[in-house]
Structures are given as structure tokens and as C-alpha cells.
Amino acid sequence: xxxxxxxxxxxxxxxxxxxxxxxxxxxxxxxxxxxxxxxxxxxxxxxxxxxxxxxxxxxxxxxxxxxxxxxxxxxxxxxxxxxxxxxxxxxxxxxxxxxxxxxxxxxxxxxxxxxxxxxxxxxxxxxxxxxxxxxxxxxxxxxxxxxxxxxxxxxxxxxxxxxxxxxxxxxxxxxxxxxxxxxxxxxxxxxxxxxxxxxxxxxxxxxxxxxxxxxxxxxxxxxxxxxxxxxxxxxxxxxxxxxxxxxxxxxxxxxxxxxxxxxxxxxxxxxxxxxxxxxxxxxxxxxxxxxxxxxxxxxxxxxxxxxxxxxxxxxxxxxxxxxxxxxxx
Length: 329
What we know:
- α3 packs parallel to α4 (96-107) and α12 (270-285) packs across α13 (300-315).
- This protein has 14 helices and ten strands.
- β2, α3 (63-75) and β3 form a beta-alpha-beta unit.
- 48% of the residues lie in helices and 13% in strands.
């Protein structure tokens, strides 16, 4: 099998590969909650990321200590899968540059990503990304740390396409609560939860613009949190709507109860996974030339679709048919 060309090597020649990220981005603000999340990650596997929150998690006056604690979590032996990132303060906060220096300096080799909140424009996002790059050089970090950008202001939504095109950007995340608050009461509070968040025209516009900008630029669109913490069917329904109606491939979590329902909702349909495996195996055997499968013609365009679907299935912990697992993973 090893002599056959792998899909990563032949299907995206000359193109930036689309990031395949875990379906859930789980936020934790305190050390206790970060370590609890790591324990759950050990149990479930790397089907969700953990974001150590230095924006909302840090107490005023203790920003440096909080960032250092987050860096310690990232570098700890408990971070078995390397899927722990951090959110820094926004560009108007006095300590954002200190956040970057501490996190990159102390954990730059293992940070899965850095999330930048509340940019007011593409210029704000570019400035913070440049600060991350400078910190890497200053601390001798050889890798480029991916950046996730929160779209939660009018200016960031206006510039979403330009932000998605910036170097390093891996994910565009929708910040629903701050976005609604920024409308000064013009959008009702009911739009911060379901069903309003999927029905209000201004929210629909924002979600569609962010998803379109992200996907067109090879960036993962990440959906806002659901405020429901206990009703698992409600949580799953929100994630399903985000995925099926708005094209989001990832969603935030703020409570451990939310992780599994979101992962389940974001998974591809199992029959499509089986179909993808069969098509890709047949295509590889033909060295990625056109094939006929179940009476339908397939070529590299459909192979790309099915290969990304198979990788998403793998990232959500789905069982992959045995031959495909051996060949491709």
C-alpha cells in the first residue's frame, strides 16, 4: 500500500491544504477547569480542542500570572495530544502584548493556536499577528503558530474576507454575544439564543458572511456557543443547524456537557463515510485517474471532497473502514 500515492500528495498540488480541526473548541478560564478539560480529552481523545482563556479568565491585575499558568498547562505532560491553545486580550487592553510575549516565550513550541478577540478591522488583526511573529523571532520559536480570529465587531465583519486572507489565520470564529451587544438594542436579546440566533436577519447575514469568507480562503468557520448547558438535544440541535444550514465545521463549547452533542452533530453521515472510503480506495488503485463507482463518474474534483470528508470523520472520532484506515491514516 505504501507505494500507492497518498491523497494529500496528489489532490491538492499547489494549493494550501484546508485545515482539519477538531469539531469543538472548548473554552476554560481557570486552572481547575483547564485541568478538568484535559482529563476529559484524555478520556475522549483529541476530538476537541481546549482554549485557555486569558481574556475573560484573568482577574484584573493578575494578567501575567494567568498567562504564565496557561503556558504551563500547554507545556504540561497532561497535554498529550498537542491540542491546547489560548485566547489573548483584545488590542485595546493594556496587557495583550504581555500575553503574547508570555505565551509564545513559554509555550510557543506547543501552542496549538492563539485566538485574538474583538479586532475592529483587518489592521487590528494584522497588527496582533505581526506581534506574534515578532515574539516567535525574539524567543527563537521556529514554527509558525496558527491564529484564530474572533469576528464580533461591525468592523471585523466588514473586513472578514481580508482577515481570512491574512497569513497564519486558520479559523474565523463568530462571537455572537458581543456582536448582538454592539447593535445597541437594535437586535433583541432573544437573538443570543435559539431560535432567534438562526432567524434574525442581521445574525443570519453575519453568520453567512463569516462562513463564506472563511471557506473561500481555506479557513475553518467556527460557530458561537450555545447558552444551553443541560438539555443535550437542544445543544445537538444548535450544532446541527450551524453545520447543515450555515456551513460551520466547528463550534465553541463552554461546558463539558456540550462537547459530545456538538461532536456528534458535526460528524459526517456514516453512509457517506463508507462511500468516501470505497471511492478513494478505487481511485488510489487507479493512481487518481477517473473511475466509475456505482454507475457514477468520479475524478479529482470529487476525490478532494471525499478525502476532506474522510479526514473530518476521523477528527470527530468516527470509525473508518479498515482498508481506508490502513491506506490513508
